[in-house]
Amino acid sequence: MNADTNLTTPYFMIDEKKLIENLEKAKTLKALSGVKLVLALKCFSTWGVFDIIKPYLDGTTSSGPFEVKLGHETFGGETHAYSVGYSEQDVRDVADIADKMIFNSQSQLKAYRHLVEGKASVGLRLNPGVSYAGQDLADPARAFSRLGVQFDHIEASVFESIDGVMFHMNCENKDVDAFVLLLEAISERFGDYLNQLDWVSLGGGVFFTWPGYDIEKLATALKAFSERHNVQLYLEPGEAIITKTTDLVVTVVDIVENEKQTAIVDSATEAHRLDTLIYNEPASIAEASEQGQYPYVIGSCSCLAGDQFCEATFDEPLKIGQRLHILDSAGYTMVKLNWFNGLRMPSIFCRRENGDIQKLNEFDYNDFKRSLSQWSVN
Ligand SMILES: *Cc1c(COP(=O)(O)O)cnc(C)c1O
Q1: Is the model's pLDDT at 257 over the cut of 70?
Q2: Residue nearest (by alpha carbon) to ligand 1 atom 3
Q3: Which of 169, 194, 196, 371 is most buried, by the most CB atoms less than 10 A from its CB?
Q4: How many domains does the chain have?
Q5: Known SUPFAM superfamilies for this protein (predicted)?
Q6: Contact (CB, 8 A) for 199 and 34
């Protein structure tokens, strides 16, 4: 199959060619810097395309026990596990399959280190107290942050009982100079501690696949850091790997007017593209044109009053039955799909490099029903 006009909307279309363009940049970064890259599954875990990604990256990083298991089973390589809060059962389940286990606090480390020793390399998340993030909600260094150990709270002896540390302090950071400054701040503040370790992970959020990003500058800074502290460096990219690879394809089912024209489509941000809503970041539509004379709200078919994808202008009036491609819909979307309003769940396809379209997932009424109850009271 290589025509997508017959596919029933809504659906996600992952483009292999675009994915490989991002992965080639990842390969360059690795080659120039010596850094290892593990895919953050919380951003993207559509394992049906992992065979495309595997040759380029070193493994995965996960939080919940199911993510860890999925990474281990479907991706392989190095499996990193970090959670803001592990239960004892989580630790027991994860320790057997993880290569690295990273605790969020010194109390969790003390409580569970003995369960991990001899099985996985042990790490601790530190909070550098500095960050690069557009919104407070996504800022790991926000006031009263619960993410990682603050510098002032570190017990120096802790470094005798761990192999590495993780810092995560970036969100969609497209500015290499800003990242290098963070790196220098960490080196200065935590350097004496880092010198005692085997590995340091610098987390995710470094947008090295953004057009024009100076990968060489990033690589030089990472290489210098790893040599200065004699550690293996890791990055944990999510968004950077799958950015701009995937459209959410929808159909206009109605057009209504109330001072503005709203085109209602057969999808909803609340159910299928949740971060549009959470971060109040409008989506982009492939068919829109900045100079267009016909403005529309692209509205969701959910019941939530403010649920819309964006406002956009078009060269021609939109028509009922017409398809729209909502761009850049891979990250933090498929991992957050939900059944709100009993909407049809988007199916998931991959357009291979040779043009073939392969189905990775489809959902039906039974998936919806089972997600709500499997047994009724009697
Ligand atoms: C969210 C997260 C990532 C991935 O972030 P991206 O912005 O998608 O690159 C990596 N590491 C940790 C600890 C995270 O919380």
Answers
A1: yes
A2: 204
A3: 169
A4: 2
A5: Alanine racemase C-terminal domain-like (SSF50621), PLP-binding barrel (SSF51419)
A6: no
Q: Which atom of ligand 1 is nearest to the CA of 332?
A: 8
Same domain, 168 and 261: no
Q: Which atom of ligand 1 is nearest to the CA of 203?
A: 11
Q: Which of 242, 260, 294 is the last residue of a domain?
A: 242
In this structure, what CATH number is given to the domain that contains residue 31?
Answer: 3.20.20.10
Nearest to residue 229, comparing CAs of 197, 256, 266, 264? 197
Is 269 part of any domain? Answer: yes
User: Could you tell me if 192 and 248 lie in one domain?
Assistant: no
Asked whether residue 96 is marked as a ligand-binding residue, the answer is no
Query: Could you tell me if 105 and 143 are in contact, meaning their C-beta atoms sit under 8 angstroms apart?
Result: no
Pocket test for ligand 1, best of 22, 38, 43 (most atoms within 8 A of CB): 43
Q: Give the structural domain span for 344.
A: 244-370
Residues 98 and 214 in one domain: yes
What CA–CA distances, in Å, run from 119 to 84, 94, 100, 106? 20, 10, 9, 19
Give the pLDDT band of residue 180 (cuts 50, 70, 90): very high
- 16 known ligand binder: no
Q: Give the atom of ligand 1 at the shortest distance from the alpha carbon of 170.
A: 7
Residue 2 banded pLDDT, cuts 50, 70, 90: low
CA of 137 to the centre of ligand 1 (A): 14
Q: How far is the CA of 286 from the centre of ligand 1 (A)?
A: 27
Residue 204 Cβ inside 6 Å of ligand 1? The answer reads: yes
